[in-house]
Write a structure and sequence with these properties.
Elements: H1 7-23, H2 34-46, H3 57-70, H4 77-83, H5 101-115
Length: 120
């Protein structure tokens, strides 16, 4: 199990849940249960199979926004994970490795030698 969720994550989930509460959806937990609901959502989401990073706070809020436009009943945490957008790709890709043409020829020759005895 992961460690306890950090403050940034708890705040992002709390802000997202406020959006859902404002919708007054059927199946919404009673207001006196919202602190427990928040703790449960934080626990379930934090311990899901995601490697959360502090930069994900915006993604969590975006997922709540997307979810709020798609649902007509109070959602389950799984629905939020389904609405979670992908992380942005890095602006610049890493350069490819510099290949040594002679070493590449040796590797190709080794592979051909290994494949000579293999039936196709």
């Amino acid at each position: 199990m992961k460690t306890e969720a950090p403050d940034w994550f708890r705040r992002a989930v709390a802000d997202g849940l406020k959006v859902l509460v404002a919708l007054s959806l059927p199946g919404e937990p009673a207001l006196d249960l919202m602190p427990a609901t928040k703790r449960l959502w934080v626990h379930l989401l934090w311990n899901s199979h995601h490697a959360w990073q502090s930069a994900d706070a915006a993604r969590v809020l975006e997922a709540f926004t997307v979810l709020a436009t798609l649902i007509d009943r109070w959602p389950a945490p799984r629905q939020l994970l389904d609405a979670l957008p992908r992380r942005p790709r890095p602006q610049q890709a890493l350069p490819g490795p510099k290949a040594d043409p002679e070493q590449a020829r040796r590797y190709i020759a080794q592979m051909r030698a290994m494949l000579r005895g293999v039936d196709a």
